[in-house]
Design goal:
Radius of gyration: 23 Å
Structural class: alpha+beta
Main location: other
Distance between the termini: 9 Å
InterPro entries: Peptide/Ni-bd, SBP_5, SBP_5_dom
Protein name: ABC transporter substrate-binding protein
Pfam families: SBP_bac_5
Helix content: 25-40%
Strand content: 15-25%
Number of helices: 14
Number of strands: 20
Shape: globular
Keywords: Signal, Transport
Low-confidence stretches: 1-31
Largest sheet: 12 strands, mixed
């Protein structure tokens, strides 16, 4: 049958498919075969990152997508987004009017894949462990509002918070809050390598070569008890070196599903091809890309330099040349579809203007051209990243105000160097931990931020972030969130560039592709199945 493009509506909190993928009995494997999913995410254990899939360390979308299949959390984000729902928990909720005491009751009969019971003590151990290890990935900061964790018997856990946090249920749905077995994970030490023991819908067998994961086989966990209902017995996740090799594998039938990151060229080809046996699903995306700054570095320490870059960069031209309709210009850290978003950067800088940028630099007595190196990762965000940075270089140098060079590095080298402050300017992407404005602000601006950024604005940290978290109604929090975005636009510790859509391509006989990823790019392997022809 012909390929179909399925477009899902971009409504955060109400993500409902307008059309379900149909099957085709003439492609792919038999109904009992493992579903093979391709990805360009790479998983490497190194001296800098020896524990890539430990819940207390992992903090990138690829590693989280492994953990979400294998490690249970008290809460989970539902298939169509919206408020998180109990998963390992039977029920959870705030028990006070101030959003400072959160209690959960566990489902009965939970056990880890090795047969050990999942109880309140294991939950407390897991949360306390992540907070005490305090990994340099910064993932522990998601749990920073926790003061103490209390157990009441074997099945009840109470979280006492330092301050009100209406986003706390979302945080309990993220892998850093994953429940691990105290027998398999040391309290004060990360678990190196790729072994995972959890109570999630799947168990995982890792195939590793030269400290790199080359294949992950997820097998349905017969002892799993929770909210999710796996529609398959086995899924194989296969990493590829680039989008082209992944696409070739899909064409040949070596894989059944192609996920992030497809190249813009692949997406356009699939959109226009009416003769193949592949379904392309377009979904609303909450991914953003941005430039980060080491605000202590001499080259960009002056706010005027960062403001001048914000005044020169032409986001619309960048998106048009590199990504086309697959992305849109972004003028805040918070995407346009998230409650609380403002166009703070456009409000301050309007359209690109070299004369205004020159005035900013002259007033600060900055000698031009300002010499800078923009660093980017060559293998983490897709093949178009190099082209994107080529366009940024051209835009900045064409102004005559900057002398920019660009330098790429593989993710396993790029990320440790960025965390150590070795880059003055660097390109990063962000896939939200949960769809709330707080998760686009606090991870970059709060204490122990994920970038290791030296930027510190006391009003944001001490007043505005806590103020926004007190509001269970996120519309009510908009004033605080708006103030944060205005400060970021003025100080420019981060320069937002664009937000993107997301895509999944599947062979004809695969069902559930419309739910294979949620808006936060969470890979939901349990939704995939094999169908028959319409």
């Amino acid at each position: 049958m012909n390929r179909k493009t399925l477009v899902l509506p971009a409504v955060v909190g109400l993500l409902t498919p307008v059309l379900a993928a149909c099957g085709g009995s003439d492609s792919g494997g038999k109904s009992g075969d493992a579903i093979v999913v391709g990805t360009t995410d790479r998983f490497t254990a190194s001296n800098d990152a020896p524990a890539p899939v430990d819940p207390a360390y992992a903090y990138d979308v690829g590693s989280w997508n492994i953990l979400r299949q294998t490690v249970q959390t008290l809460m989970v984000q539902p298939r169509g987004d919206g408020e998180p729902e109990p998963e390992a928990a039977e029920s959870c909720g705030f028990t006070d009017t101030g959003n400072e005491r959160y209690a959960c009751k566990l489902r009965s009969g939970l056990k880890f894949s090795n047969g050990d019971p999942v109880n309140a003590a294991a939950v407390k151990f897991s949360i306390d462990r992540a907070l005490s290890i305090k990994a340099d990935s910064g993932v522990f900061a998601l749990l920073s509002t926790i003061d103490t964790v209390e157990t009441q018997g074997d099945n009840e856990v109470v979280f006492h918070l330092k301050t009100a946090d209406a986003t706390f249920p979302f945080k309990l749905s993220t892998p850093v809050a994953g429940i691990v077995d105290p027998k398999d994970y040391e309290k004060n030490k990360l678990r190196d390598g790729f072994q995972i023991d959890g109570s999630g819908p799947y168990t995982m067998q890792a195939e590793v070569q030269n400290n790199e994961l080359v294949k992950a086989t997820f097998t349905k966990n017969p002892d799993y008890k929770g909210l999710l209902t796996p529609k398959n017995d086995k899924v194989v996740l296969e990493p590829f070196k680039d989008a082209d090799s992944m696409g070739t594998a899909l064409d040949k039938g070596d894989i059944d599903v192609m996920t992030r990151q497809m190249s813009p060229e692949q997406i356009r080809k699939l959109q226009n091809d009416t003769t193949g046996k592949v379904n392309l699903v377009e979904m609303p995306g909450l991914e953003i890309r941005y430039l980060g700054f080491n605000t202590d570095a001499s080259s960009v320490k002056s706010k005027a330099v960062r403001q001048a870059m914000a005044q020169v960069v032409d986001r619309s031209a960048l998106v048009s040349k590199v990504y086309g309709s697959e992305a849109q210009a972004l003028y805040s850290l918070v995407p346009a579809t998230i409650t609380g978003h403002t166009n703070a950067f456009f409000n301050k800088y309007s359209d690109p203007n070299v004369a205004k940028a020159r005035t900013l630099l002259n007033k600060a007595n900055i000698t031009t051209p300002v010499k800078l190196t923009l660093h980017y990762t060559t293998d983490h965000y897709g093949s178009a990243t190099a082209q994107e940075f080529g366009v940024l270089k051209q835009q900045l140098n064409a102004s005559g105000l900057f002398d920019v060079s660009i330098q790429g590095a593989t993710w396993d080298k790029f990320r440790p160097a960025e965390k150590k402050g070795q880059y003055d300017v660097y390109g990063m992407g962000w896939f939200p931990d949960f769809p709330d404005a707080d998760n686009y602000l606090a991870p970059f601006l709060d204490k122990d931020n994920t970038l290791g950024s030296p930027y510190d604005n006391t009003e944001i940290r001490n007043t505005l972030i806590p103020q926004s978290r007190r509001e269970a109604d996120r519309l009510t929090a908009s004033k605080s969130l708006s103030d944060i975005q205005d400060i970021v636009a003025d100080d420019v510790p981060i320069l937002p560039l664009w937000q993107g859509k997301q895509y999944v391509a599947t062979r004809d006989d695969i069902t559930g592709s419309e739910y294979a990823m949620n808006s936060s790019s969470t890979l939901q392997l349990w939704e995939l199945g094999r169908g028959v022809s319409d």
